[in-house]
Amino acid sequence: MKRNIHFSLIFFLSLLMFIFVTFPVDARKTNMKKKLHKHHKESHPHSTQVNTYDIMSFGANGNGVSDDSQAFLAAWKSACKVASATIKVPEKLNFLIKAITLQGPCMPGLTLQIDGTILAPSQVSSWPKSSLFQWINFKWVQNFTIKGDGTIDGQGFNWWKNSELSDIQKTHSKQIPSMKPTAIRFYSSNLISVKDIKIINSPLCHLKFDNSNRIKVDNITISSPQSSPNTDGIHLQNTHDVEIQHSNIGTGDDCVSIQTGCSNIHVHHIKCGPGHGISLGGLGKDKSLACVSDIIVADIAMKNTLYGARIKTWQGGNGMVKNVTFSRIKVHDVMYPIMIDQYYCDKQICKNQTGTVMISGVKFDQISGTYAMQPVHLACSNSIPCTDVDLTDIQLRPSLEYRGYEQAMCWNSYGKSQGELVPSSIDYCLRSGGGLIKRIAKSRDSVCYKLL
Ligand SMILES: *[C@@H]1O[C@H](CO)[C@@H](O)[C@H](O)[C@H]1NC(C)=O
Ligand SMILES: *[C@@H]1O[C@H](CO)[C@@H](O)[C@H](O)[C@H]1NC(C)=O
Ligand SMILES: *[C@@H]1O[C@H](CO)[C@@H](O)[C@H](O)[C@H]1NC(C)=O
Ligand SMILES: *[C@@H]1O[C@H](CO)[C@@H](O)[C@H](O)[C@H]1NC(C)=O
């Protein structure tokens, strides 16, 4: 409700801004067209078409060696002022871009057309210590599209090496900072579409949205080696109304990672692997409040991933995960296809704590294929059980790589199982009832209502 009011306000303001800016720009466009027509033999300094801003016309070299950041920024600044402008990164060329922020607000309908390759600096030492958070940062951008046949290459191989070192070696290794950059980040941005492009080899996460709304990701490819640590494909935080579809994601970590403050997220028709599958969390770290709701993950093919459909929370958190559906997921040689882990821990041992992010209303539906470790692993909190967990039409068989437990495991988890269930241990895995816990769910609901 609160968010709706927020939305209407933003919409109303955008409408005002749109009306305000459209008229003078239309007038300008007509003037420009007239001028172009008059001097049609003169070449336009920045573009062939009125609304196209080719970064080559802003001084880019496109040789992959010299720094083209200033040209990129200049093209952005010019295009940003014009409605429905296109910034072109032309094909067959390589553009070396350092850590930059491309900032809005811009006129609506801006497009970044990437047909060539954008490269990050490959030497760790050439990254300033002050800009290790991300490489390309889109900030306060509205109604904006990235598309094209091109590639965004984070050249992360020098950053990944660190993970092979021990903790002691790491503290002595001055070259590689512990913070690594995300490749593409959208911060506080709305109405964003990312399609067709490839994003590869990020030092850390490939594509991140935080504090953003109305996001569409379609037909993209994300890849980095299986051995690259913490290289999530797509990472969402405090972000609402998202559709991620028809994409191919294979990295060293989660294909899609949904973090706190996310709602109304629809992820479908994704090929995922290698990596850690599609995850909600880790939520509730350091006793924090975490709220995630209204998530649909459907029509997914997972191959050689560590997990399939997963929810992970740290012990000690607060808040709630609710209304989550994982359906029509085909797994091939996945270690743990169905997983709830409320004891998530990044060390050998984490302290036992009583609080937890409550989990309620999770459907696992039509999940089939092969597993290598355990078909179903639901480890819910000792303090507050998971409720309304449904397991429907689950058919999981050991893969050729199988070396684990054939029994489904459910701990402190209430719900119902139905339809075809293989292995049959899934049928008596969940507990029935759990009515008393509904009261806790209600109070968590009101805590999260304020956050989402
Ligand atoms: C985005 O901008 C374009 C170009 O100005 C406009 O036609 C379109 O309606 C805008 N989209 C939304 C959802 O406001
Ligand atoms: C998907 O993106 C590729 C470029 O990476 C493009 O060639 C193809 O036409 C796109 N497919 C659709 C359905 O748009
Ligand atoms: C659950 O989430 C889905 C997807 O966002 C939404 O369409 C549906 O209305 C939600 N159901 C409830 C009971 O809130
Ligand atoms: C946490 O609790 C579990 C189960 O009660 C117990 O087996 C385990 O040893 C405890 N761990 C620590 C670190 O206290």
TrEMBL record:
Gene3D superfamilies: Single-stranded right-handed beta-helix, Pectin lyase-like (2.160.20.10)
Any Pfam family matching the protein: Glyco_hydro_28
Main subcellular localisation: secreted
Signal peptide: 1-27
One example GO MF annotation: polygalacturonase activity
GO biological process: carbohydrate metabolic process; cell wall organization
Subcellular location: Secreted, Cell wall
SMART domains assigned: PbH1
Keywords: Cell wall, Cell wall biogenesis/degradation, Glycosidase, Hydrolase, Secreted, Signal
Recorded family membership: Belongs to the glycosyl hydrolase 28 family.
Name of the molecule in the record: Polygalacturonase
Organism the protein comes from: Pisum sativum
Biological classification of the source: Eukaryota, Viridiplantae, Streptophyta, Embryophyta, Tracheophyta
